[in-house]
Amino acid sequence: MSTDTPGIDPLQALRAPRDPACDVFLTGPVFLDIVFTGLDSAPVRGTESWARGMGSSPGGVANMATALARLGLHTSLAAAFGDDHYGEYCWDALEQGEGIDLSMSHTVPGWHSPVTVSMAYEGERTMVSHGHEAPAPTGTPAPAFPNCPPRARAAIASLAPGRSEPWVAAAARNGALIFADVGWDETGRWDLDALPDLAHCEAFLPNAEEAMRYTRTDCPRAAAHALAERVPLAVVTLGAEGAYAVDGRTGAAAAVPAIEVEALDPTGAGDVFVAGFVTGTLADWPLADRLAFAGLTAALSVQEFGGSLSAPGWAEVAAWWQLIRTCESQAPAALERYAFLDDLLPTTARAWPLRRAVPTIGFRQ
Length: 365
Description:
This protein is of the alpha/beta class. Helix content is 26%, strand content 21%. The chain is built from 9 helices and 14 strands.
């Protein structure tokens, strides 16, 4: 766990002796992210641009894993790591720095780590990535990675048209709640039936554009209600307008506006939102509280640069809440919306904002 995060366990009141040791399982590629911020405009061909800020951190699926771990969830990650210095750094940062269980991960000899360079400017980002697909692990007996996931309360999947991941069904059979996001459909068909693993999902969390395309609707809220006919929980993120969710079991809906912040780098904000929503769902909070918490964690993340670097822990949440309660200009409705934090947070918090990011892969000890 991150060393500046208070020891808050959001599931403490729900834990029982026979519960799985793992709260959330996830798998996917880990990148080394190099993020440049403070660019006044997009880079121009034939010129050199200087950035005022820079950070390096594990990226890809590591963004989500870090966000979950910093919120106090016992997180297990199955991923391939290169045997170069980048891979060594990412493994150490996740296992030693964040307390993430990497027992199902492995290092691939002779395979270099995927790398993404991200440039943030004008509230947007441009990314350049390079990498090769990791070879499948071999050995006798057959390795568990990743198709035999550990018993867990939840698992997070990224859906893609025409692709089914055997581990998703295995995790669902073992009792895990499956939370899924989705990427842009390059086929252009936008067919929900082409997402076979959606049938195993507890919650589906697309953005507004994805949701409307998949449901053939022209309104994000209508899209959420249509999706709730396919999954128990449909959550549609609305960018600057917040998020809207529908509980398909009860028909209940909730809408929470976004928190207005000055965005430094949006990298990983979607992953942080999902991590916040998973946390609230496993803790059995009301639907509106889950949305509000997910939106808050995402808003805190965009004020820092980097994906996993910017994921907030309870220290940042507590410091934000402390600041908001002492701000005379804050609307009563906002204070009421986040009042549920009083029962979760310590009475003292460190100075806000906190800075985790460092500009290098790692200083020599």
